[in-house]
């Protein structure tokens, strides 16, 4: 009898000790955020500050020896955004990991030379331009899918495909990595589904009927493993080509086709608006503890179609 009691006491003490010695990383489990959604209806994580532990992720990723590719387009006047984009990326984007910046441009001489950390390089890919800014934006899907076989499959494990009229302003690391990820569009975070600016004309390949759709994703930041990004960008380009041959262009260009694809192929991770924000336009609501990738003010008349 006495012995059983002693064993129970020992066991309880042992369990209590385990609780007291929980690693700091378990804080997030006990202080779960309740101000924001943390999971999609298909159980993909929505990434926010307070939902991941950098140190654990570092341990998990360090041995995998991965390389991350970042595709960014700087065509015509948009080359002016490259310096700040790359400088801030060196400070905040995937610090400690191997990164290939793929700069797609028609003005290779204007790609700034900036000092890079070890294991990181800029690869300039010379591409054609288009007269309309909408065509430049849309043809990104085609160009990304085209360069998968020439570069990405051999050179990187993951791709992050990002707008250039932006800068990094806080940690943006491996917590985003997954087979296929999209980012919540800051202008539609918390908005009702019926207000999402999906393409509503049934004739378009990007059509999403009223009452359907999960989130409104931003065209300015998506990615995943090279295979998944290849499949997505190829499908979006094909959908655009079909529309073009039928004389129709989706209301928000590449973003509309991206939204259709991610509606049909659910992303395995969703990035919160910490990962794409515009403070000028939207201020700084309390649920945003971090601003990681933010819009740089641009004068549309000065920059577009130039
Ligand atoms: N872009 C470019 N040159 C142009 C127009 C667009 O390089 O003349 C690229 C650039 O990477 C830009 C992206 O396409 O960030 C999307 O266009 P924009 O940022 O103007 O769209 P918005 O974010 O305002 O919807
Ligand atoms: Mn942009």
From TrEMBL:
Q: Which InterPro entries match?
A: Glyco_trans_6 (IPR005076), Nucleotide-diphossugar_trans (IPR029044)
Q: Does the keyword tRNA-binding apply?
A: no
Listed A to Z, the keywords are: Glycosyltransferase, Manganese, Membrane, Metal-binding, Signal-anchor, Transferase, Transmembrane, Transmembrane helix
GO MF, one term, reads: metal ion binding
Chain positions recorded as UDP-N-acetyl-alpha-D-galactosamine binding sites? 73-75, 78, 163-165
Cell compartments where the protein resides = Membrane
UniProt remark on cofactor binding: Binds 1 Mn(2+) ion per subunit.
Active site as annotated: 255 (nucleophile)
Q: Which GO terms describe its biological process?
A: carbohydrate metabolic process
Cellular component, GO, one term: vesicle
What is its membrane topology? Single-pass type II membrane protein
UniProt entry tagged with the keyword DNA damage = no
> Taxonomically, which superkingdom?
Eukaryota
What CDD domains does the entry give? Glyco_transf_6 (cd02515)
Give the record's family classification. Belongs to the glycosyltransferase 6 family.
Name of the protein: ABO, alpha 1-3-N-acetylgalactosaminyltransferase and alpha 1-3-galactosyltransferase
Q: Which organism is it from?
A: Vombatus ursinus (Common wombat)
Q: Which gene encodes it?
A: ABO
């Amino acid at each position: 009898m006495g012995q059983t009691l002693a064993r129970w006491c020992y066991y309880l003490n042992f369990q209590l000790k385990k609780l007291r010695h929980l690693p700091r990383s378990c804080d997030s489990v006990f202080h779960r955020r309740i101000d924001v959604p943390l999971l999609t209806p298909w159980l993909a994580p929505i990434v926010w500050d307070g939902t991941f532990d950098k140190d654990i992720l570092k341990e998990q990723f360090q041995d995998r020896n991965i390389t991350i590719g970042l595709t960014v387009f700087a065509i015509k006047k948009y080359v002016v955004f490259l310096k700040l984009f790359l400088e801030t990326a060196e400070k905040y984007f995937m610090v400690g990991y191997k990164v290939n910046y793929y700069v797609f441009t028609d003005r290779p001489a204007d790609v700034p030379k900036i000092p890079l950390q070890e294991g990181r390089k800029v690869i300039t890919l010379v591409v054609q331009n288009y007269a309309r800014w909408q065509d430049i934006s849309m043809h990104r899907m085609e160009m990304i899918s085209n360069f998968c076989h020439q570069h990405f499959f051999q050179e990187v494990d993951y791709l992050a495909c990002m707008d250039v009229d932006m800068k990094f302003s806080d940690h943006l690391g491996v917590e985003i990595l997954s087979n296929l990820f999209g980012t919540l569009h800051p202008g539609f975070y918390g908005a009702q589904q019926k207000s999402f600016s999906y393409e509503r004309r049934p004739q378009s390949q990007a059509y999403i009927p009223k009452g359907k759709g999960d989130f409104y994703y931003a065209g300015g930041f998506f990615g995943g493993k090279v295979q998944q990004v290849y499949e997505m960008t190829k499908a979006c380009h094909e959908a655009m080509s079909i529309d073009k041959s039928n004389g129709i262009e989706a209301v928000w260009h590449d973003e509309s086709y991206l939204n259709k694809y991610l509606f049909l192929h659910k992303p395995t991770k969703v990035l919160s608006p910490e990962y794409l924000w515009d403070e000028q336009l939207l201020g700084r609501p309390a649920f945003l503890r971090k601003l990681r990738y933010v819009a740089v003010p641009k004068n549309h008349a000065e920059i577009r179609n130039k």
